[in-house]
Amino acid sequence: MMEKGIAGIESAVGVELPEHYRRFLLEHAQTLKAAKKKLPMRALLYFEPKQITEINRRLHDNPRMIEINEDSEPWPLNYFVVGTNGGGDFWMVDLNDPREAIWKYDSESGGVIVPSEYASWAEYMAAVERDLQNPQKWQ
């Protein structure tokens, strides 16, 4: 992804992305795109501006589209969706927190927001790289 794509996301959704997430997109979007071809069944973070924009634009337009805390509260708009596992959970970044952190919306636990299984972008990419070494698991 290029700066132009990131600027398009920010403009379309009306947010400023944290610097750590911007760097992640700039440095790893192409790797994720290649990984998707080799690992078609693996859930990967979004790497296309359209994917990122669509879900976040819809949440900004209708925060009740995904409700949290036992479906009692609207989606908190400071959480910006960066991917899904395909099973109803989402990975996010907190737009109000400059620290590198990846959060998870856990649908099976009543729609709570918890730290994700990845403590950093480097840890996430290490997991993707491990899976690329064993692609038959994801085909």
UniProtKB/TrEMBL annotation:
Taxonomy, superkingdom: Bacteria
Mind telling me which SUPFAM superfamilies this protein's record contains? SMI1/KNR4-like
Q: Which residues cross the membrane?
A: none
Gene3D superfamilies xref list? SMI1/KNR4-like (3.40.1580.10)
- List the InterPro entries hit by this protein, alphabetically: Knr4/Smi1-like_dom (IPR018958), Knr4/Smi1-like_sf (IPR037883)
Pfam families for this protein: SMI1_KNR4
Endpoints of the signal sequence: none
Q: Where is the Knr4/Smi1-like domain?
A: 6-108
Entry protein name:
SMI1/KNR4 family protein
Organism, by scientific name, is Gemmata palustris
